[in-house]
Amino acid sequence: MRFFKKKSVSPVIPQETSNQIILEEHGSRPISAHTRVSHQIVDVPAGEHVKFSKLLSCCQRCFTKENLKEQALLIGTISAVVLGIGIGIALRTLKCPKNERVDGCRITKEDITYIDFPGLIFVNILKMLILPLIVSSIISSLAQLDGQSAGKMGIRALVYYLGTTLLAAILGIILVLTIRPGTRGGAVEINPNSKAAEGRTIDTVLDLFRNLFPENIVEATFRSAGTDLKVNRTFYFDANEKNKSYNITIYTPVVVKRDGINVLGLLLFCIIFGILISRLKEKAIILKHFFEAMLEVVMQLVRIAMLYSPIGVFFLIVAKMLEMDDLGDFVGSLGLYMATVLAGLFIHGFIVLPLLLFVITRINSFKYIRGMSQALVTAFGTGSSSATLPVTYRCVEEKNHIDPRVSRFVLPVGATVNMDGTALYEAVAAIYIAQLNGIPLNAVKIIVTSLTSTLASIGAASIPQAGLVTMVIVLNALGLPPEEVRTIYAVDWLLDRFRTAINVFGDSIGCAIVQHLSRKELSVLDEEIVAATVNTNHSATVLPVLVSDDADYNSSKPDGNVIDPANHKLFSSTTV
């Protein structure tokens, strides 16, 4: 019965520094529930029951209503992925080989579109939030930074993105040269319905600059520029030169407008807009408050949208499993190719990136990955890093406690230019296609593969299966026929989901690393905010008072005093 005896306790009053209070009032950092002012007396058990008390308080914090909701949502989304794969495979026995219900089949192509419909609604909801989220997050974050701090932060982010993307491409090349999936597992049957895209490196580079500087910023919110390459291949026979024949290929590039947000143009415009708001200070304070309030509203919409995520992800996975032509695509040579890509993504995502995180920041990598679980599952379900961006914001800021001034600037840039998984996939796919066709690659071509896949992944739009388009650029750089991209078409949809998850995780790791490297600049900004707020709170309010040298004080007057306006002096009266 010793456990139930009265414990000796000591009263402790939690306190808070003035700097924390000022920062919370200013709103530069998210306010935590543990930093609020509390004047209640907390009983701290003494003696042998201290450990039990700490364990009890820890359990109370873990099993709060909000934490239970978050865990339920995460468990529901993961369960939706598992159930979607299982039910999708089970329903394939009812799938009709043609678009007719014969021989006992029940599910036609039209039925698959109905199954996919709830998932498309979920993707549309997330895409609807991309535009206000990018605009408000970048402008509000840069408005709180000075130009020098923003420049240093941007350089660090770009160096990290290019470095990790190049590392991913090199890792993929090492694996595909070691495993050699193209020389094992037999021939690959090409899907007759697949089409090869046409593309050139110069057109991709020009499209990047066209989208960086859009002619209409309003049009950039729903349309981007792109090159539609028309190819005319003709066979020419010259009878005058000893019956020589030539194959002539004529490329005709046509610049067209494509539906979709021009993220690059919006990024550049919002970055400059936010820096100018920071420089104008008080003159643009209304704009600063407007975009901060807009971001808070958008984040509330994201929380509401995430309640629908288990349902949307479930139907997306079921529909994709039913759309597959043949499960036999996952065996043989293509199966080895898939295993090579997945092994590279696993090593890069769960060994290389966490190791970088720990070495640079000393953050617990497992805890950080757990905080990003919801975003990773959503990325796998949607196959789009842009559509996952609202969820990534929420996980990075609320669960991993990254400074919003960093995350709101780094994440939109990362969703556009940081494509670790895509670079690895393109490097593996290019060498795999060369192995299938028996084309040897020397050291120079392998180096070209790593550099080209890195640059092509940056140009890849953050939409599902955009890597197939940029894949043509890598094949052209190696002298391989672009139509060979059809070889990997059958399994690309599944690999696309895995590499999208790695892209999103790489963006989140970049936030933590950039925050750690920018901690000095952020602390200086915090000190400036504290100093400005202290001076404002403790400065005296000066009120002007008119006092006359020859004032006549007459109590019979209604006001009790008379001030001669012709001869008066200006003094100051200080009121506290």
Automatic annotation (TrEMBL):
Coiled coil (residue ranges): none
Signal peptide: none
GO cellular component: plasma membrane
Membrane topology: Multi-pass membrane protein
Name of protein: Amino acid transporter
UniProt-annotated location(s): Membrane
Gene Ontology MF terms: glutamate:sodium symporter activity; L-glutamate transmembrane transporter activity; neutral L-amino acid transmembrane transporter activity
Record field: transmembrane: 72-91, 121-145, 157-179, 261-280, 301-322, 334-360
Family as reported in the entry's similarity comment: Belongs to the dicarboxylate/amino acid:cation symporter (DAACS) (TC 2.A.23) family.
Presence of the UniProt keyword Glycoprotein in the record: yes
Keywords for the protein's UniProt record, in alphabetical order: Glycoprotein, Membrane, Symport, Transmembrane, Transmembrane helix, Transport
Keyword Endoplasmic reticulum: no
PROSITE patterns tied to this protein: NA_DICARBOXYL_SYMP_2
